[in-house]
Amino acid sequence: MSQVLTVSCKLEVLPQQVEKLDAVLSAFAKCCEYVNSHTPEKLTNQIAVQSLIYKEARAHSGLSAQMTIHAIRRVCANRKTAKQKGKPVKGFAPTSATYDSRTFTFRESDWVVSLTMLKGREKFKLHIGNYQKHLLAGQNPKSATLAKRFDGSFYLQIQLESAPPAIPETEDVLGVDLGRTDIAVTSEGEKFSGKEITQVRDRYSRVRASLQRQASKGTRSSRRRCRQVLKRLSGSERRFQAWLNHTSKTCHGCKVIGNRHGKKFECLNLACGWMGDADVNGAKNIAALGMLVNHPGGSEIMSCFLQDVVLRAAESPRCTAIAVSVG
User: What range(s) does the Cas12f1-like TNB domain occupy (predicted)?
Assistant: First the structure.
């Protein structure tokens, strides 16, 4: 498996080169339009489309052999995307063209690229900073995309392919307890104030209340817009949160449920007797659960005992503690 990093590089284009760049972009779009209109609309296999239309498309557009193949590939990719969305294929604008190792070369010594045009090749100096130079140094890019922006400038999006870095194995897990007074408390004792985010949440709450009031009165169009906004906002937080109950009420040391009074926690187990910040205690419990997320059959480490009731451990972080009677 490999990862691809795209580096956007502005081209230093001479006045006489602008016409050549516009010509190759127009020819690429023209080739895409020709392929899309002269082959069955439902055909998305590149090899099948290429066997049907390659010679005609190349003669019609004047592109090189390799760029004609890339135009066919783009049409097939757009058809697949349109099919997934249930929409027709959009028109092809003369704003980009695809290059590969046969039609594009990069020279690091003077930061120059060579691109295939309709007739021959043209060299362009890269107008880039130290950040782009750092990314391109020592690389041998095999693909790029020529793009024209609204202001008339030309950019080359150079793709760098590399193997992703190995993920180091570790047995350390950082638990984070989320709240309102302190938005986050880590198992290492670090705290982050929730004052600012609470103010933002309260402001959004007032906005929702205002929208709900407006949704019940006003014109039909204003009521419809209010309902649409409320529907878009509903559940947006819930989709990205997993609730773990009783993490700050369970002692991280002996796993006995104790008493929490505001920010303070006190363990009821006389043999333990731990006392301290309830959020720090909860973060330590979350860290213990995180270590056992992939543990087969769940985690028994979070089993809690309280008088005559056993609280069975959560088998995944999305589960909450379940009370079961003891025989």
Answer: 246-286
